[in-house]
Amino acid sequence: MALDLPFIWAALIAFAVLAYVVLDGFDLGVGILFPFFKAKHDRDVMMNSVAPVWDGNETWLVLGGGGLLAVFPLAYATILPALYMPLTAMLLGLIFRGVAFEYRWRTKRGEFLWDIAFSGGSTVAAFSQGVALGALVQGIPVENRAYTGGWWDWLTPFSVATGVALLVGYALLGATWLVMKTTGDLAERARYYALRAGVGTLAAMGIFSLWTPFLKPLYLDRWFGWPTMIFSIVVPLLVLGCSYLLIQGLKTRHDTRPFLAALGLFVLGFIGIGISFYPYIVPTSVTIWEAAGPDESLGFLLVGAVVLVPIILAYTGYAYWVFRGKVDPGEGYH
Q1: Is 282 helix (H, G, I), strand (E, B) or coil?
Q2: pLDDT per residue as tens digits for the range 51-95
Q3: Phi and psi dihedrals of 83, rounded to 5?
Q4: Rounded to an integer, what distance in angstroms lies between the CA atom of residue 295 and that of residue 293?
Q5: Number of structural domains found in the chain
């Protein structure tokens, strides 16, 4: 039986995007929360909590973006012109944040500038990702296999609201990460912000669950038609379960449960988006199979993915294992 290579690659790219969101999401969240922690000691510990893993987390962004170009060139050529502005802003934000990791520790007089670069870069990158997601969900006009919209079509109330929602969601991931990785007053304040960001994230999930189905007939049919409406019952129940674990974990001062519950919320949100999209890679315009390159190319690239993805997973798991536990305030970048 022949392999459905476009479907396999769509699943691989979806996995890479999800891995990026949940992994880089929490270190972007740490940057988003940076302005709320004024003490230099707190900021040092916050950066050191993500310093060993942040660059590895971005590997998944490269895999997702590179895979889209190599495997689904039509989707890449359609999505990029529609989202040039938010994606360019995202990359600039990631660059400033990455440079801040290195240069903040090399200066005292200009340290505040790199604090701004770290926080501002994280905030811009997160907001831009949310805007790009919102623009993709609301639909990209395509005719004759080409983008036919304007330069500012991505900028709508829905996409801006999605950008704000993702900022709040990443702040939740960042706060729960700090709860898990830090101690003392820093952890207590992180718990305070996690509870509020958690309420905001759940509110945003509720709002967009009601808003999104009415953007496209496909979404409405997918969520309220049979048999896919089963997911409309199962996913909200799982969200309620994660919400309970999040709030209960924060109130009982559990270290790891809030972070795992926050990750669960993001995974469920991602599954919801996937259910709405499938089988389209450019919603309601281009399917996975229409966008895919030749099977020969997909098969050749799949051989490399089968080798590299397990290596990346092993390296990522090993890095998190080595740097497990609480951050020692006396160690890190100096």
Answers
A1: strand
A2: 888 878 888 888 888 888 889 988 888 888 889 899 999 999 999
A3: -125, 25
A4: 6
A5: 1
